[in-house]
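Predict the holo structure. Ligand: zinc ion.
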Amino acid sequence: MQIFPSMLASDFARLADEAARVEGHADWLHIDVMDYRFVPNLTLGLPVVESLLKATTIPLDCHLMIEDPDRWAPSYAEAGARSVTFHAEASKAPIRTARTLRAAGARAGIALNPTTPVEPLLDLLPSFDLVLIMTIEPGFGGQVFMDETLPKIRRVREAIGDRDIWLQVDGGITNDTIGRAAEAGANVFVAGSAVYGAPDPAAAIDRLRAIAQG
Ligand code: DX5
Ligand code: ZN
């Protein structure tokens, strides 16, 4: 059970300090890249990721909520992000892009919005190291977890079995919802406001992990 704090809920003017606050508690850091096109919000891109890579030893998990990830995703892996996830809805060549990410030394992740069916992707699972089931509509932190996504999490867990493909959930993960996501089969949990909105982010991570472990 791994907890990845989302830096979207941290202070963007102090990213290095915000990373340091969770060191030794966060498994990895989740970085939300948004382009005002795939989602109606804009965050940060490659230059900021490159700077953050120099400022922390915690591995970075880049979640690309962008159009044309086939073109842009590889540069995040080449920069040193240890995992790069792009959206199935935005990719025209997901297998090729996953291969490029792996060749650059990163884990390759595929993300699905709440209404995107997983069945067409099940045959592609061996191409990926991570499947991200969005448990909110992407674009903003602080939204409410959608219980409607739980059956999809269960189906993906069934398809993965015990292969080393991480099943990640992102959106609305809190002390109240993480247990349901874990029970459905998720094993990597992104949490933004539940971590950086807490008075002690490191303690919040430990608590979330303890609940996920049941
Ligand atoms: C939203 C992002 C999430 C976001 C989650 O599109 O993908 O990673 O930071 O925020 P919370 O945990 O507050 O729902
Ligand atoms: Zn995210």
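The radius of gyration is 16 Å. Residues 201-213 form the longest helix (13 residues).
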